Amino acid sequence: MSQPRRIFIALLLLIAGLGAAQSAAALDVHGRSSTQYIWYNDIEDGSQQAQLAEYLSFSMNGIDSANKLSMQGYGRLNYDLKNGGDVQSRLYYLFADYKGLADRVDVRLGRQFVNLSAGSALIDGIQADIKNLGWVGVTLLGGRDVLFSEQDTMTSHFYSGGVAMYLVGVKKTDLDVSYYRAYDHSDVTRDILGLNFNQYLLDSVKFYANARYDLTAEVFNEALAGVKYFPKLDMMLTAEYYESYPTFDTTSIFSVFAVNKYQEGVLKADYTALAWLDLSGGVIRETYGDGGDATVYEVGFRMRPSHQLTVGIFYDNRIGYGGDLNGFKTYAEYSDLKKLKVAAGIDYDVYQRDDMTGDEIARRYWAATRYNFTKKMSASLRVEDNVNANYSKDVRGRATFDVDF
Amino acid sequence: MKRLLIIALFILGAAITTAQAGSLVIMLAQAGSEAPAPPAAVETKPAPAATEAPGAPAAAETKAAPAKTPGTPQKQDHKEYAEMEVKECTSCHKGSGISPNHDADWLRGHRLLAVKPQKNCKDCHNQSFCLDCHTGGGINANLETENPTVNTAPSSHRTDWREIHPIKAHDNPQTCTRCHRSQFCSDCHARFRGEDLMVLSHRKGWSNLQAGSPGPAHSTFTADQCQSCHLNGLLPKHVWSSDHAREARRNLQACQSCHSDGQVCMTCHSARTGLRVNPHPRNWDKVKNSYKNKSSGRSCIVCHDNY
């Protein structure tokens, strides 16, 4: 039995014990258990597959009298009902959070998702937020990267660490600079400086910028600048410029190759035209260098003709380098506002991967329902059929039994 | 026995909760009398981009928005609002000068919100909300959420994703790497026949080219005849074209997804053998020592004896 599986099973037992003890102590345990039966066709050989999965997430408070310590966890066990074999597991996160250490530091220890403007990772490690330093706050983090394969958790020899400094207490301004470094064994694979900036102005404008500078390649790996204008809260106009220069781990041979800069200009609009009607639209112009470019147009409607019914239609059209894609997605969702919710939709795409192939059509038809037995217990069923270049019929779906606690 | 153990484990998560609230039978019996509501969950909100937008009419059963306090500080704790519909946020935020951020463009734009050090995502969302998409989870499976396997797929992974992803991967190539390491691509591509995955640069661009001007088309020659004109040529196969350099510069990640070790590139780009075509960027002289020192020369030694 692998270590993550042992940890996860131990965790299940721990939660069971704590749950039983909850009434006697001040311990406050909340979470969700989702037991799912999932069936699908294998992407490679088309054979029918079926899995039984148990997802469990929890948060635990009230562990100490000062309520400074809390724990959170999320994991999955799944078993292949068609082919048998071992129970597979995935521990997404399991960490302890201690707030207000010496009234200055929040510490998070364990498996966790960390995210800085310079980089992000899922790590087994530690994150510390140092506060009450005046107008600046500091975040420090580091640990071993967690890598999931399709079946299990892989042994990782990657390590990540970072530090961020950010502005505190300046109204309507966010600014942080961060540094992120990743290792493969003892070699430095990534060395990135990050910046994130937001500035609100005149109660109706937001300027924002984000950048990642690769210290090894000495180029901006990513840079973004944009403005949002919202004269009313039911209308928002967005203009954005983004560019990226693909960089690779320094240990990869691809890191030494010359590449082109990718650039993107975005114009978007969101508008609530009526109390029951939301409209959105946009255009994205993409440039790849050497004369390669593409344009993406997007339009969306979301309607709520009644409290029970929601209907959405979203269309987009991509033309240019890399292939053409022209598709829509529509769905309707009905809720009786009591116990029952039903939904159905159609996704339809026409695409051409390059000039030497013809158009292909891919369709997805789906229907789903959820029934709430109580406020904390529900079951759902979703079935879909895919008709496309690979399948004339590809029925797959999911049945769930969810319990919140 | 083993199956029984497995089944017992699967239902354990559900059982511990029912143990808290009373027996399953009692819960079912209460079903008829309890106030109707969506399942209260650690995550109560569906994927915002797909289902929520500011300004839509309020649902019949949602909490009233707490009154806005004049001079509310910017970084207010939003935990008490966690169960509200996103569209209700506008009632508080009206006039606050803070833009709505769960709009129709949320899927593309949420990255900038998530990297802020003082982000308040956690006031409403657990990390499972992030990781269900970023690392393949499934506990927040809403009705519209698709699951190709036990890992649910984000809404960006549309219809026949296996066929369409090469197109979508061109829309900001960095997007793929936010969730997937390069090994994810190469592991999957290795399972399919290379011919099925061919892209423009790998097709027979040579067939209409004339051998000399005027001269016969290249398609009239056999592979055995290549060497008669292209003495010591490195490309005896009719599967290459000059497009490869342009395509590689535009989207080198795509090359890596099949040629993960880059050995095929060394046919022409090694400093030891072949055509010895320099593949480095313009600022290479400035940065090469940095690459060498940080990687302990691991990428240098592939092509160079002395570096």
Descriptive keywords:
heterodimer, A: 405 residues, mainly beta, 22-stranded antiparallel barrel, 24 strands, 5% helix, B: 307 residues, mainly alpha, 14 helices, disordered N terminus
What is shown here, in short?
The complex is a heterodimer of chains A (405) and B (307). With 405 residues, chain A is mainly beta.
Along the chain, the helix and strand elements of chain A come as HEEEEEEEEEEEEEEEEEEEEEEEE
Helix content of chain A: under 10%
Q: Largest interface, counted with CB-CB under 8 A?
A: A-B, 182 and 136 residues
Question: What is the quaternary state of this protein?
Answer: heterodimer
Average pLDDT number of chain A: 88
Q: Give the CA-based shape of chain B.
A: elongated
Name the structural class of chain A. mainly beta
The number of strands of chain B is 0
Query: Main β-sheet of chain B, in a few words?
Result: none
The Rg value of chain A, from CA coordinates, equals 25 Å
Mean pLDDT of chain B: 70
Helix content of chain B: 25-40%
- SSE-based structural type of chain B: mainly alpha
The span between the termini of chain A is: 29 Å
Low-confidence spans of chain A: none
Shape of chain A: globular
